[in-house]
Write a structure and sequence with these properties.
Elements lengths: L4 H5 L7 H17 L24 E7 L2 E4 L2 E3 L1 H13 L5 E6 L5 H14 L4 E4 L1
Parallel strand pairs: 1-4, 4-5
Antiparallel strand pairs: 1-2, 2-3
Helix pairs in contact: 3-4
């Protein structure tokens, strides 16, 4: 049995093409799944009992799939802040009661909560 030294003596070069492909795919995956946007915080607090509402003047907001209504009048979310400030200055809004109806999305709810909070208006209570 004869063994050739030339067959085992050569150093084979390892191909890095497949390794580069794998690294590129991993880089692409992590870039596409990473989140670079900042999410805003919405401050929520627990509500008190019904006894706290007895001496306050409520404003009723109703959120449904078609939009928003303030005291049974249709309203746009962009107008909500200024309307709440007008009602509060007139002494007709001590607390905002928000009723969420079927079909309303969570994004609509967050928009309304943010608009009430940004207006610096009365406190918000969400009812079912």
């Amino acid at each position: 049995m004869r063994i050739e030294a030339g067959a085992y003596g050569r150093v084979r070069r390892i191909s890095l093409t497949s390794l580069i492909d794998v690294i590129f795919l991993l880089l692409l995956f992590f870039m596409l799944t990473a989140t670079f946007s900042r999410f805003a915080d919405v401050e929520l607090s627990t509500g008190g009992g019904a006894s706290q509402l007895a001496d306050q003047t409520p404003v009723f907001l109703q959120l449904h799939a078609d939009g928003l209504s303030l005291n049974a009048e249709p309203l746009d979310v962009s107008q909500l802040g200024e309307r709440l400030l007008v009602l509060r200055e007139a002494g007709r809004a001590d607390v905002v009661i928000l009723s969420v109806r079927d079909g309303a999305t969570s994004q609509q709810l967050v928009d309304v909560i943010a608009a009430v909070g940004a207006s610096g208006g009365p406190p918000l209570q969400i009812v079912r």
